[in-house]
Amino acid sequence: MSWGWEDDVMTSSALLHPFADPAKPEGDFVKIVRAEGTTLWDDTGKTYLDAMASLWFCQIGHGNREMVDAIGTQLAQLDSHHIFDPFTHQPAIDAAEAIRSVSPMPDGRVFLGSSGSEAVDTALKLMRQFHRLNGDPDRQILLRRTRGYHGTNWGGTTAQGIEPNRDGWGDLVPHFVEIDPDDVEDAARVFAEHGDRIAGVITEPIQGAGGVFPPSDGYLEGLRRLTEQHGALLCFDEVISGFGRTGSWFASQTYGVTPDLITFAKGVTSGYQPLSGVVVGRRVADAFESSDAMLRTGYTYSGHPAACAAGVTNIAIIERDGLVARATEIGERFEAAFAALTRDGVIAGHRGTGAVQAALLHADGIGTRQRMLEGGVVVRPIGEALAFCPPLTSTDAEIDTMIDVMVASIRPA
Ligand code: PMP
């Protein structure tokens, strides 16, 4: 069958790309046709090193046959069936067990969805309902943090601390208050003012899309102390930082602060299937388990068997191949190189934890990103930061090439 556009991609204007200029012609995008390990191929045969693990998600590298086989085997056995009451299936049970066993809340429960945005919106709803179930329905205020990114559904859009992403959509979800991203005293002031009406706080332990910002000293501990003092909940959005990225299974463990809920997506399957969810800690789970009400939220594809099979296999591969420790090694390699480049004045500085790092340029990163693309390395510019978040299977030689191509692409400010 012919649709009429196969021969000339330039003439197809059907696809509306996310986070892109709607007027940009389809032919101006880089068309990726194949991927293997850390290498991507475009339709001209040019290769790139994927220094961003696609969009911060591909922990185990591309083209892993074990994953493809596990997903295919699951699809052949049970393509899909929902898990709303009264149904369940083994892939969903196994995924929930595997995820909570590596999380800092191994006695918690695991809600499943397909995207980070679904996980975030569910976590925000659960935080408010927790208080309602505890007889405190007036606790509706949710704190967000400047620079935060929490997806693009209504809750996540409102929870964002990146203003341009919130603008232009009309009225958002009520009762959100923004706090300073580095100074926990600001959160302390908000708690002093609204403490008995605050349902919870959502933050990434290391802010990713907002520019790769590890927490300032004492920040996460401060949020934990304030939420406990005031009876509010703490949710860490670990959509980027989960599944080994920062040198522990979760950044909660890296930074030593345990929240009440964790949202996850991306690295849980390394992107081979869309899977996300919320790890619900024991305190919150107790409130839901002891209420008579049913949990009236969820998605058709909550616990999709193929996605769950991908999650279980991915976690097993990360464990078996030592990729959590590899994230620390990758981070140390970037940090050593970036420190030397900072001393030499090539870059202005750097920040990051484990295998999520940013080089800080002396100028906006868009031009450097473009030249790096031409040089065969994919990074992500965020203002003057260039984000690096490679697959945890990347070799030392590949990491060195990513850095060398960056240096060759930097022009004097
Ligand atoms: N939370 C965080 C911390 C994220 O980085 C992202 C995606 N970059 C999301 C939520 C949203 O995930 P998704 O795009 O899968 O909806």
TrEMBL record:
Belongs to the class-III pyridoxal-phosphate-dependent aminotransferase family. Its EC number is 2.6.1.-. Keywords: Aminotransferase, Pyridoxal phosphate, Transferase. Its cofactor is pyridoxal 5'-phosphate. This is Aminotransferase. GO terms for molecular function: adenosylmethionine-8-amino-7-oxononanoate transaminase activity; pyridoxal phosphate binding. PANTHER family: ADENOSYLMETHIONINE-8-AMINO-7-OXONONANOATE AMINOTRANSFERASE (PTHR42684). It comes from the Bacteria. SUPFAM superfamilies: PLP-dependent transferases. GO terms for biological process: biotin biosynthetic process.
